[in-house]
Design goal:
3 domains; 400 residues; 57% helix; six-stranded mixed β-sheet
Length: 400
């Protein structure tokens, strides 16, 4: 006797057509949800631009709507390949599991909305959920198997070898011969210098391509990247393209055995620097970091050197302090200051005359130049003192 086929748990033909048309949008939303949850998934090494996570989610939904009892072999294969790619990109099995769980939740929410909207009976809806849980669990297993298979391969390009290399690099003063062996195992040309990049795990960002020579420590706490030969030709542009606008701090360039020191300073910068200054190269903001290490001293300097400006209206004071900082940094050249501020040189000269009247001859005394620069930076970086007017502190965004 032929066994009876189980009744379909899905809505009828009309709703099914709507669901199938919605698969690309649902898959894109689920992939974005996963990347927002797992910072390591916000970077990719896919040089062909393929979005493997989105492809896998799309295949999973299509397969589920066709045959909910068991994922088709081709869908299983897609998830195995996804697991392998995640391992090759240096992402951990925990990252993969968390990302897929987040994606599953996003897909389930959208499908549940449709189940309610299309008036599924409780019994049919329960079957829908039960089959969905079993289906996604099977896909999780396939992805995990793919990840394990990649880890078991020869270490040439395997992700685990690169993760081990990152962890070795970030130890205090690792032995050069240990680094050389680990770099060979990970197929990573050992550079003379590196910069560690601390990235903010709390801020999701758009997907970016990670150059193949950049090591990922996004599975660590705090998450980081290791960028080789940061002072080489075109490396600054590569850093900017990689980071985009994601809040992050590029640590100082150091010898290969001092990567841990670079990351320590970069992480400190991420803790202290205002978010709207990021991303930045820490070496360009050392004075700001020093000021933020001792805010009371910085505020005292600002109060002492800029006291004559406090009797001005807030908007006028802001214009003059912006002009004074640019004037200092441009070597007291009115034309260069005007170009930086996008204003007319005569406007700058008028403001400088006001500043001369307010601050006096000390403005041009080399012995006071550092105090003025520190005071101006402090005023931008630190919250407004409650004893002063309530003008919000203003910071300047500086891209990496």
């Amino acid at each position: 006797m032929t066994p009876r086929a189980p009744s379909a748990p899905f809505p009828d033909a009309g709703p099914m057509r709507w669901l199938r048309r919605s698969i690309p949008a649902i898959a894109a939303e689920a992939a974005d949800t996963a990347r927002a949850r797992v910072i390591a998934c916000q970077w990719s090494r896919r040089p062909d631009g393929r979005d493997l996570l989105r492809e896998a989610i799309t295949a999973a939904i299509e397969g589920f709507l066709r045959a909910p009892d068991e994922p088709p072999p081709q869908v299983i294969r897609v998830f195995q390949l996804l697991g392998q790619a995640e391992a090759d990109d240096g992402r951990s099995p925990e990252d993969l599991r968390t990302a897929l769980s987040a994606a599953t939740g996003a897909v389930a929410e959208r499908l549940a909305e449709q189940a309610v909207r299309r008036d599924l009976t409780p019994r049919r809806g329960g079957t829908f959920v039960r089959l969905g849980l079993a289906y996604t669990d099977r896909l999780q297993q396939a992805a995990a198997a793919g990840h394990r298979a990649a880890e078991a391969r020869a270490t040439g390009h395997a992700g685990p070898a690169r993760r081990r290399l990152v962890e070795l690099l970030l130890r205090p003063r690792p032995e050069p011969h240990d680094l050389a062996d680990a770099a060979t195992a990970a197929d990573w040309p050992l550079p003379r210098t590196v910069a560690a990049i601390a990235v903010d795990p709390r801020t999701p960002g758009p997907r970016r391509i990670l150059p193949p020579d950049v090591l990922t420590g996004l599975h660590l706490d705090p998450p980081c990247l290791i960028f080789p030969d940061p002072s080489g030709p075109a490396r600054r542009a590569a850093t900017e393209a990689m980071l985009g606008g994601h809040p992050s701090v590029v640590g100082p360039t150091v010898e290969i055995t001092r990567a841990a020191a670079s990351l320590r300073l970069a992480h400190r910068g991420l803790e202290l620097l205002p978010p709207d200054m990021l991303p930045v190269h820490l070496s360009e903001h050392t004075p700001a970091l020093l000021l933020l290490q001792n805010p009371e001293l910085a505020r005292t300097i600002a109060d002492r050197k800029l006291a004559p400006l406090r009797r001005l209206r807030p908007s006028q004071r802001l214009r003059l302090t912006d002009t004074l900082l640019a004037y200092f940094e441009c070597g007291f050249n009115s034309s260069s200051t005007a170009a930086r501020l996008h204003t007319h040189p005569q406007t700058v000269r008028n403001r400088v005359r006001q500043l001369n009247d307010l601050l006096g001859p000390d403005l041009y005394n080399p012995a006071h130049a550092l105090d003025y620069l520190m005071a101006l930076h402090a005023q931008r970086l630190l919250p407004t003192d409650s004893t002063c007017d309530q003008t919000p502190a203003r910071t300047t965004r500086r891209t990496a």
